[in-house]
Protein 1
Amino acid sequence: MDGSVFFHKLLIILGFSIPVIYIFNKLKFPSIIGFLITGIIIGPFGLKLITDTAGIQLMAEIGVALLLFTIGVEISLARFLKHLSEFLLTGGLQVFFTFLAGFFIGLLFQMSLMQAVFIGFILAHSSSALVLKMLKDRGDEESPQGRTSIGVILFQDIMVVPMMLLIPFLAGDSGPTTGVIIWKLAKSLLIIAAILVAARYIIPFILERLAYMQMRDVFVITSIVITLGIAWLTHALGLSLAIGAFLAGLAISDTDFTHQIISDINPFRDIFLSIFFVSFGMILDLDFALKNYAFIFAVTLTILLLKAGIVIGLVKFLKYPWRTALLSGVILSQIGEFSFVLALQGFKNNIISEYTYQTFISASVLTFIVSPLLIALAYHVLSGKNLFVADKNAKSSDEIDELQMKNHVIVCGLGLNGRNLVKVLKETAINYVITDLNIQHIRDMQKAGEKNIIWGDCSNTEILKRAGVEKARVLVIAISDRFLTKCALSVAKSLNPNIHVIVRTKYVTDIEELQALGADDIIPEEFETSIQIFSRVLKMFHIPNSIILTQGNIIRNKSYGVFRQVRFTQEAFDQISQILAQGTIDTCYIAVDNPVIGKSIKKIDLKAQTGAMIINIIRDNKTITNPPSNFVLKEADQIILFGSHAAIDAGLKILGAGNQNGD
């Protein structure tokens, strides 16, 4: 494609996208719909501003690859492998039952056996780009519905390989043998495993060398080369670009470079991904759609209901709560981008007629437009629904000891934070009740002898009542689902306004909203780390613990606003200077082999050398105030020093302690 022509097309896409997205934003509609509408308007079946979509499709594929890469980075390989069996089971059952439903629909419309099989193929896929974009916008990738949806679409992408191989056979040609198909599928899995292993050990080494170079531009370029390079490699070996990009992200997900890579790639990803959705709008033939709108609408509705119904049934079969099942069903209800690729190949090979092809394309694009609205509506509606179905093996509140139903702690979520909290509560004899919607967590805790545990959705009114929320003293929400966290907080406060709610969040942007919903303590993970860092820094200057704790509390009481909008004033610096100018107290521990052991205070002559005074010595849990000059120091003595900050530093060096607060 000529460079000026390509640039002209890009300007048209982005230029028309701006007003359309602005309008949809004002209407509070998802931006994806705006991009699709933009494609319909400027495409070959609209205003015909762009008629050749070849270059546009290339940019669209890059957008999907970058999206899959960032999703892979954020998922973490360890967590992905932990849920791999669940992904394979859910994805395999979804593909099988959706294919079966499509096959019978084809026979119902009096299609041939081969055509019916092909209909099953193209119905089996959901959109990787749309699903992941919607989940990412909501920060919902790590929720149960997020993990389920991602697992299903990844399995669907792998199944594209055997489906593409079978197209010649369905067209009436000889096609590949069963052995060839099995070998191709096995080879695909071997390629995936090989790329994961190679990337796991090679890419982090390369990135570490580049990080030492401290050349930001080279690091950015390398990140993109890694993403697109592995995507291209998998594509060349017979898999999709999307699978390759996801594997690249997954392979480096647990390295030290993930956050920087994501921030570097995001701007490119968002631009190319926008072009992807615009390109999908371009393939809709408006004339055909308007002439056959009634039938296309019926087909669209059938697709949405059929696919959502199958996923809902499967997720419920795997014993997830209704909320997870319903959200998973709606999220996966649309037709996928690989279905368009299969449909085009089927049309070219005369497996389906032009009328069937155009009907499928029109209905599929319509599912793309409707799906974001249905997902947003589902999240909104389910925020207030009581869709709990209790696990028969989990205890109900009626079975929990009455003593534990008063003044107790409710722990929502059995991740690392939840498990650690439960361990401490048990050791300190504080009564508690656990809720979790991950059945494996429940089983593990039950095997460990845990009794006060309820399987279910902690945002559900019935679940919280069963956990005794109306009589509880503290509710700790330690789950990764942002939406569920806010719902649980709102419901808990409505049932018991006096309950003290502690919420964990990864996002500082959620603090004000959580505070408005009634959270008493909000713990944003990254900023608690920041408080620990400045506490260590202040200790280096011997700032008293009371002042350090006060500063930490000020930050927390101001909802961490000091980190979000930092203003340094002369008054603040003056206060720090005054603190440093004052005398302070510090402690020195006399460890084994310390050179001052066996020496008297007079011989050490600390005050004369440094200005620091020994005011107390703690020995054998007894405090000796103002020890005499002939007092001889022993191992395990704790010396309390008083003096200026400089004097304390010098005194610690003489006492052989160095800077103990630096550890």
Note: Residues 384-404, 560-570, 659-663 have pLDDT under 50 and may be disordered.
Protein 2
Amino acid sequence: MAEATKAPAKAPKLADPMEASIEVSTQEMIRRAQKLQIETVFDRAVTMKPCAIGMQGTCCKNCAMGPCRLPLPKNGIEGEDTRKGLCGATANTIAARNFIRMIAGGAAAHSDHGRGVVETFLAVARKETKDYTIKDPAKLIQIAPYFNVATTIEVDGKTLDRDLYEIALGVGEAAIAEWGKSEGTLAYLKRAPAKLQQKWEEQGVKPRAIDREIVEIMHRTHMGVDQDYKNLMKQGTRASLADGWGGAMIATDLQDVMFGSPSPLQSEANLGIMKEDHVNIIVHGHEPLLSEMIVAATQSQEMLDYAKEHGAKGIQLGGICCTANEILQRHGVPPAGNYLQQELAIITGACDAMVVDVQCVFQNLANVAKCFHTKLITTHPIAKMEQENVIHIEFDEHYAMQDAKRIVKMAIENFNNRSADVMIPQHKAKQIAGFGVESIKYHLGGSFRGDYYTLNDNIINGRIRGIAGVVGCNNARTKHNEEHITIIKELIKNDVIVLTTGCSAITAGIHGLLTPEAAAVHCGPGLAEVCETVGIPPVLHLGSCVDNSRILLAATEVVNAGGLGDDISDLPAAGSAPEWMSEKAIAIGQYFVASGVYTVFGYHMPLEGAPVFKDHLYNDMEKIYGGKWDCEPDPIKHAHKMIAHIDKKRKELGIDKARERVLMDMADRQALGMD
């Protein structure tokens, strides 16, 4: 009998580059990776299918009696929903617990980032580090009163300015207390419109301390504790507000104080920013503490000379994810790509070092780096990798520049270890980035008349239909960049100005939407006219994902400017996270909903297995806070849901009809305070 022969192993299923992404350089790098037999996230997304019950939100693994899986019956719920876990937990309880655990994870990530920023800020205030300083004293003076820190002192009947570092110490000590104080509520809640603060008070959701709200979610979702989906969501709301109006907002403000508040600047975006004849260093993650020092180190004459000694013409620094946005908005350092492009930066063969900190970092980077000469360097004590080829250089803010130079030297010394096979895609786009609450004021009104009145007036007269925040991640379960770009283009085509952060902002830059010239190509006539007159892009880059707090404050400025209601929920505005994937997105979404914003997610929401809980988020929330959740995977429908909401708010404000233009004389201008 002939010996049976083994069937040949099946070739692994690979991603179709054209189906995986709409972005050309990404397609090129996927092809290159497949040719080199290097697996990427795009290939893994093809071979690994998501858990159907997990996607419905009704799989509970919070105790060892589970996992308890409660799939939605194929014919839906007919009559009473009798599905229960072993302990009797209903689908609504399970879905709510899972949902607020995502809020806890996301709020913990952003707020722990904020805590690290405050700890470094305190080192600056105590003069324990020479590498960081106070670069924006005006911002420090602006935020000090929210922490009840005096900026002046009375001496012999005269009012004098306090020492800047005394103010900083007071702010830092008050800020760090926000994570663990035993009484009261968060200091920054009073920055919200008064009507919104009243809603939070009435609902009993004002956060007390950041860590407390996150810990309480973990307690409530432990087996056998909170079993009421509405009560669970109240705690989810508290924790999300502790992120948006607490940890994330504090992080943004103190980064501005230490590193400088962003102002618009020109840069580029995409993998094509890398240079074959330069040392290429990619910083990736979310905390700008070390990356600020790496920027300074790469620009120092000492390091530039060292690079030339090793045969390089210079040093090219680039970023991935929100570390990219941080150094872009303050220094013009170009992003090399967004979340799904991180492996591809190494696959160019030209990445001499990739330096990572926390959040959104693929462990597979280590496997990809093994195929090239790239040094992969972790820098944070809570974010290490198990692979042997990963180098750990722990960052210490007291020796920040020393650590940065050590990393830059390592990259330079690695330059000559490249193979001859370098392939950098020749695709990149110009962009204008670095807008903030203050710079938007300046662009609208100049140095002396900076105000949001101009924006409000153009919304009232109909040139600008409304405001949209389009933010968030990429997701390998969707076509890379397609939802972001399709939604943004549809919004600006319909005269909706877009504010963007995070990987969505990088995506908009890569696809050429962050330039004033984009207005003439993509915008409706009203928005195009405003952009041309003011000289701004139709899509404003507001920074990293912690900088979503800038959108909250910009919305508050619009309310304060008058004419568009007295709460954020009154504004013709909507939010979107088209390709979301992280727990941070859920935390951000909930604090926007609880701040009064209609918020639409793409892809899917883990709610379909609990229709009653889903209805609570999609409908009841609007009655409570003025904002609500929605989900729409089709990008055109997604955009038009936002536009329909904006139109509804315009009608409620009585500005749904175009206002007749009136030529104003001096008396009219004086009456409006414009003289």
Note: The mean pLDDT is 94.
Protein 3
Amino acid sequence: MTTSPRPLAPTSATSPPNDPPRWSPFAALGRFLLDPRAQGAVLTACAALVLFARAGANPLPNYDDAYYAEKAKQMLRTGDWLTPRFAEAIRLDNPPLFLWLMAATFGLAGVTAYAAVFWSALSGVACVALTHRLATRLGCPPFEAWAAGFVLLGTGYFLKYANHAMFDVFLTALFLCALLAYRRAWEGSATAWAALGVFTGLGVLTKSVLGVFPLGVVMVHALWSRRAMRSVREGAWLAPLLAVAVIAPWYGYQLVRHRSQFLEEHIAWLLVQRGTGSGAEAPPLRPFGYLRELAMTYWPWLPLAAVGLWMSAREAFARRGEAADAWDARASARLLVAWPLVVIGVMSLAREKKLWYVMSVFPALAMFSAHALAAWWPKALARARVTLGGFAVATLAGLVLAFTPWGSAPVRRPDLQRMAVAARSLVPPGERIAFLGGNYWSVAHQFVFYSDRTLVRGSDDPATVRAALDRGGWALLSTGAYVLVSAADSTRYPPVDAAGEWVLVRLRPPAGGRD
């Protein structure tokens, strides 16, 4: 039996129903901008352009950058990767993971400022990508996840330290990896709990007890969500166990090989004295010091972060009965609120306060800001325009940084840099240089790294330095110390080079002798 064909529906002469929809480049661009995978890829590319545009453009500054870089250089040159050294002396105040990475980069690319900051810049790129990924995993819509990554990339303080040869941005990347593992562990994965422990252990190997914070945040969140016992049954016990397994070899080696020095430098000085202010004239506690620093520094995002925090806190403290089996908006809000509460709360109890110590909260602040931005621009068209504009701004900023001198930071301590270069060319390798004229540590890091010579921290007695010069040695002196050492006889101890307040000095060669 045959059937008659189904009659066609009435059609319009202008829009035949069987014709495919017209392709619109604006519609395609809008769909692209709201695709989380595309957003993540473009955000990562923009972050790489911005953060590597001027990586290593300036010499490493004194204090932390040059100190860590010198330790890494000594690991490479001595072949002893377990015992950090500075100026020929063992220094056990810092764990070795970041130093290992820096030393490996020195071995591949040479001992340069770029190689020193490479891992910080790469970690900055990773932090932007991981922030976007974590926001997506916490249930944020595509625009909000994009905004979180963009805000972090547009945070001046974060950008600054992503171009320093310091541990903090790398530690922040490990923190984000740990929270992503926890989000996966919530779904019942014992492997994810083990990964959380590994990332925590790597954090401890990066910056000692500051690496433990992911476990603290996770513990508070699990208790708040009434899932502590369930988490233990699902494998949460693996996290601290794996963390200890990661840190035990290096810490155990130091306790066996350098027990007294390790306890004195790493425990007594680094953790106890710097944390509590004991053993010296204690600075004021300033319990709201970090909040004050953020209020002064976290611009232009501070108002948005405050609004986003308030919105997240309302969701976090909402009453909805018992704990949910599946991750929901309240679980995300509680994690975001617990994150800075634990880190800043604990660190506020320490007397030694530096804002980079709490660098790991900057992704959380970026997510708060993104939450407020998403509420501000609820319509899809506006979000697409903002996203396109944000990518354009980030790309333009990266190109400006890469191809123009605009925004270049001035060289810090150019006088000290010049003296280090002069010492490298004038002082024979292996010779030590006596120092007199101020705080040794405010000079030694940069000078030692760039001169490749050992600066000796001697007594404050000019006669001792004069005796070293009489034996054919060299000295780096402040202008005031030079007057005391030369004792008005500058012809006997002529300046070989001078810059700013510093003078490089040696004994005048005998007449007819070679310099």
Note: The two ends are 115 Å apart (CA to CA).
Protein 4
Amino acid sequence: MFFDDYRISRHPILNVHDSVRVFFTFNGRKLTGFRGEAVSSALFSNGIRIFGHHHADGGAQGIFCANGQCSQCTMVIDGVPRKSCIVPLEEGMVVESLEGLPELGNAPGPSVKKPLRHETQVLVLGGGPSGMAAAVELGKRGIRTIVVDDKNRLGGKLVLQTHKFFGSVEDCHAGTRGVHIAEMLQERVTSMESVEVWLDSVVLGVFSDGTVGVRRPDGYRIIRPVHLLVTTGAREKSLPFPGCTLPGVFGAGAFQTLVNRDLVKCSGRVFILGGGNVGLIGAYHAIQAGMTVVGLAEGMSECGGYKVHVDKIKRLGVNIYTSHTVLAAHGSEKLESVTVARVDREFRPVPGTEKSWNVDTLLVAVGLDPVNEFYEKAKEFGISSWIAGDSEEIAEASAAMFNGKIRGLRIARELGCDDVEIPDDLREKAEILKSPGGRVFPYEPPVDSREGVFPVLHCVQEIPCNPCMTVCPDELIKTTGHPIMGIPEYSEGCIGCERCVAVCPGLAVTLVDFRKSGNTPVVTLPFELGEWMLREGAEVTVTDREGGVLGRGVVKSWRRAPGFEKTLLVKLEVEGDIAAGVAGFRVRDPFDSEPLGNPLPVPLPDEAVVCRCERVTAGEIRKRVRSGIRDMNHLKAIIRVGFGACGGKTCSGLVERIFREEGIGPDEVTPLTGRPLFAETRLGWFAGKEGDDE
């Protein structure tokens, strides 16, 4: 395999641009990558997943979060241990794997100037959807604002999201793709004269004198804000099971970063753990990038994500295993297979229900934890602080944008902008947009009709979404319930413009047209997997809303939907008696997802690694807990759990879970003491070795 074999050369949504190639070395081997991409992505694009081996047990290491929150991808880069997922690739860079404890030699320290001090009215930590929305409101009113983000562009997780957004068209750009929303918001933020944006800048800590320390590429800065707004998003949750640290087992956010940001074809066969929106969307993104999703396991009896997301991947042939969990990931140096099993009501594996698949990737999408340590520390020190987005509460990005807007307005009012009003309906909308999804109603197919043209709305769950109602030129789609949360309903009079088909974020609207033939009508469906998947005159298997086979159809034609970039409208000729039920068609062989004939043997659960940094297992922790230890700092001192480079960010919640499993309540446990700096940095940044004069 060559460099280009691991790159996505065509994508149904994303534009594939030529980038500047540079050379670097990995363990003495000369490789090529794209300038400015993460070192970890450059390695993946060369087929390298194993980044080194841990000194404690020799276990192979790869990536997990790809967002700088854990430390699993650490390597020696130009003589310094650094997280490869957040280091941009440069020409001539020397990258070495961590094999045991590193011998660093005389690596030069950072050449930095005396720390500069800044004062601002508002400091926004994080340039994602909520941070940008707040900055826009502050900028409109001329409030001096600094936005700090550790990436090379604004957008946060929006830049990873190729799907169209739910929510309200008016309030949060529903019907528009996340990547395009990021571009729109970035343009608005950077056009504000009073707003200053610091990119590639890492917030290190919040201090008791009311200042915030930031490491910029050109040196260390100390900022004293009047108000601090924390919009730093969330980090991936982990789940301990044997093999959970194998290269090839990583978070869904890391997968989206590799695929949708860096256009790396990082997988061939993928299994997904977690049926929330993140896992469901990750499955869809994998299929868009040409990968095979062999299955998805969800521990609950129903997936927690939106029903339209569930149905969308079912129609594409993905098997969803509810009330199942992963027992083990198998492989010696990297992931080779995975075993899942059914769980009972107490979430205990049911013997005899095990299934195994050969896969090279397992996406762990079991939830997110707020990155709120900056806010908590600011409150402790009495700094005027605010919080929004996933840092406050995990929800959809549409809710994050709206809450960021509200926080920006509230801060503006605190700073004396008396003309700022926050209507009560804004707060109501904010709560609605946070909704994880409401009731699912029984599916009722439209009344049998064999004349004219009409849309079929395959949306049966109360979710915050109104694009189909907003886009209809004759306002024929409405709801009898809440204007955003209600189930959409169609009334007579459709002219066949197909806009509702093109705009629906859940790909849950089709158009049935009997006007030319009553026996073989044409059904128009949305399609986002690329024109190369289609062939005029091809016979395809058509499915209902949930992926059930209805019969056969013929691809007559397709076109790009005007005004809805990258969405294709595919016209299928089908039998009249099934037309109203057709919601999709198969694009792959379902046998791709068949499990192995015999499940693989599963190691004991105590072998699962809980602390990735120090390779501390669940069994080691349980042994100490059963001996009477109730202080997480005591555990840290004797078995090093939470001692590693991530500062306990990825394992502290898992240790708390073990305490609960052992019947020990949270009031009996002393939590882990946080470090004063929330991001690792070399002490030379604080030294001010050069330019000591002002």
Note: The first helix runs from residue 39 to 44.
